[in-house]
Design a protein that fits this description.
- The chain has 97 residues and is an alpha+beta fold.
- Strand 2 and strand 3 form a beta hairpin.
- A five-stranded mixed sheet has the order 4-1-3-2-5, covered by helices on one side.
Amino acid sequence: MQHSQQLPKIIRAHLFISGRVQGVGYRYATVDTASQLGLTGWVRNLPDYRVEAVFEGAQEVVEEMIRWCHSGPPAAVVQEIVTEYEKPEGLRGFEVT
């Protein structure tokens, strides 16, 4: 790693995703995509039919993941995403909870 570069800024994004996002493989596609990008965090279904997700990683990568969430897997229909930025917890791995 080059010493002249500063470390990427690590951020945490907490998303609430609305639309047709349960029963369409959204959580598993999210795990695959986040893992490929090297992000940590988790994703779960909520009782009100939304999906909740947390992503931690380099800012540019988290922003790329949020863009992916707006379309999701082919069967999903995403209507709205509410994103809150929080203090990173230093999560390990990415899982469905």
